[in-house]
Amino acid sequence: MVYVNIILLWTAFGFLHSFLISRWMMKIMQARLGRYYAFYRLGYNIFSLLTFIPPYLYTKSVSTPLAYSFSGWRWLQFGLLVLALGLMLGAFLTYDLKEFLGIKQAQTFKRPGTVAAPRHTRIVKQGLLAWVRHPVYLGTIIFLWSMDSTWAEVVAKGVMTLYILVGIRLEEQKLVAEFGEEYRRYQQEVPMLLPWRRNKV
């Protein structure tokens, strides 16, 4: 029953997280909130952080056997963690971090009639994004599986990994709808997660 609870909690988190950032929901919220929509991205990130806490604490609280450990292989664990953090940091240096967090959009809330800037204005193809389309997600997956884990944590990580893969598909559907053929070319030129090839973009 513990494992079922973990699956349900993390699935609910993933569903809610994706639902609130879907194009359909964002259009509804933009229409209803008006100029207050400038705070939507920031509020979404805060809400996501708060709703992450219950499933995380529950997973950490249950007692299940150790599934795997890097004992004797700490050098490998250290290398994977450095790689994961390097991927995420490198990606954030390429992104507009203020826009990603929602701060930039919130700053547009200065006077009536001001409209929040869209999240995506162009396809970024520099840095790590010239090698892999989703370095943050790749780094997150590597980070998740680089930690010693109980069976409860393995189940949680499995759900989170599946959620990331589904989330990538949903996000790319939005990007194709926004950028059309330009993003389709980017998909053909740069791998999604594993940088097994690099073409000029």
Description:
The model has no long low-confidence stretch (mean pLDDT 88). The chain is globular. The N and C termini lie far apart (49 Å). A two-stranded antiparallel ribbon has the order 1-2. It has helices at residues 2-20, 23-33, 40-61, 74-94, 97-101, 103-106, 135-145, 151-179, 181-189, and strands spanning 66-68, 149-150. The protein has one domain (2-189). With 201 residues, the chain is mainly α. It holds the Pfam family DUF1295.
What is the averaged pLDDT score? 88
Class inferred from helices and paired strands? mainly alpha
Tally of separate domains: 1
What is the overall shape?
Answer: globular
Taken in chain order, the helices and strands follow as HHHEHHHHEHH
Largest sheet, spatial ordering of strands: 1-2
